[in-house]
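Q: Hi! First time doing this. I have a protein sequence and I read that you can turn it into a structure. Is that right? Here it is:
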Amino acid sequence: MSKFKLIAILLLFSVVANAQDSSFFKISEVSADTIPVDKLSVGVGGGYEFGGIGVNVIYYATKNIGVFFGAGYPLTGFGYNAGVKIRIVADNSASTFMPYIIGMYGYNATIRIPDYPELNKTFYGATVGAGIDYRPGNSKFGYISATIYVPFRSTAQKDYISNDLNNARGIPYSTSRIYPLSASIGYKFILRRDKFVPQKIELQ
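A: Yes, that's right. Below is the predicted 3D structure, encoded as structure tokens:
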């Protein structure tokens, strides 16, 4: 693993770790119209989590831990990703901002050559990331998800560029087009919400 990726991972997890302090996003302040967090959601967007440009389905086994599957079009054919999402929830209700970390396996790199579509190729591997679910206007219908990813790639992509494209076919494709980070953004529609158990307040 390169030093750049290691530093990026440490920064991503540092942000999420610091966010566990509810004062970071003031998620301890529960407004009157706060609603339960989602149990089942379907999203549309672009990025690894959505299999490219596509859809994502996530089910939360607990209020903090969810499993998901995404499928879409990464401009080179069919793409998919499946994984686990761990979000920070102050109580049983949704907040305007909910930080999370994510880990998945699926497509995490592509090579697209418009003049030679038969040479397009999709690569698969593990990816980790961190992001924020943003629920504008305290909406009970859905929320925006934005994520920064660190993909773990083998040498297969660089080998394909050097051996198959550059050397064998003489196609000028630079390995500098392989970026160490990626991002996604999408909107999740809430299909089912978790049961809300309000906290009891004892009067003295």
